[in-house]
Amino acid sequence: MNILFVCTGNTCRSPMAEALLINKAGDVNVQSAGIFAGSGMPISEGAKRVLKKQGIDIDHQSQPVTPELLEWADLVLTMSEQHKQSLAMQYDQWQDKL
């Protein structure tokens, strides 16, 4: 199964969710992206510290949501209802994955 986590900038919530799921269930394919993300930004220091306390090291580079990522995903999990609504309006052909 391919799971995509989506938040705003892909530097805090969605990469944390990605790292936590990979840590718990290593046999799934997981990525994260942001609705307003730039490419190549690191995870926030606060998020990195929280994950480190859980024994999870992360080397993350932000990426924006793209049609290719939405096509790849079997399930898209958003960090808020607003993220879901934004994706549904912009990418209505993938609403069944949200």
SSE blueprint:
Elements: E1 2-7, H1 13-24, E2 29-34, H2 45-53, H3 67-72, E3 75-78, H4 81-90
Quick description:
It is built from four helices and three strands; from the N terminus they run E-H-E-H-H-E-H. It is α/β, with parallel strands linked by helices and 98 residues long. Strands 2-1-3 form a three-stranded parallel beta sheet.
Report strand %.
Answer: 15-25%
Total DSSP helices = 4
Low-confidence segments, given as residue ranges, are: none
- What percent of residues adopt helix (DSSP H or I)? 25-40%
What's the count of strands? 3
Reading the helices and strands in chain order gives EHEHHEH
Largest β-sheet summary:
3 strands, parallel
What labels would you give this structure?
single chain, alpha/beta, three-stranded parallel β-sheet, globular
Could you characterize the architecture of this molecule?
This protein has 98 residues and is of the alpha/beta class. It is built from four helices and three strands, in the order E-H-E-H-H-E-H. It has helices at 13-24, 45-53, 67-72, 81-90, and strands spanning 2-7, 29-34, 75-78. The chain has a three-stranded parallel β-sheet. The model has no long low-confidence stretch (mean pLDDT 96).
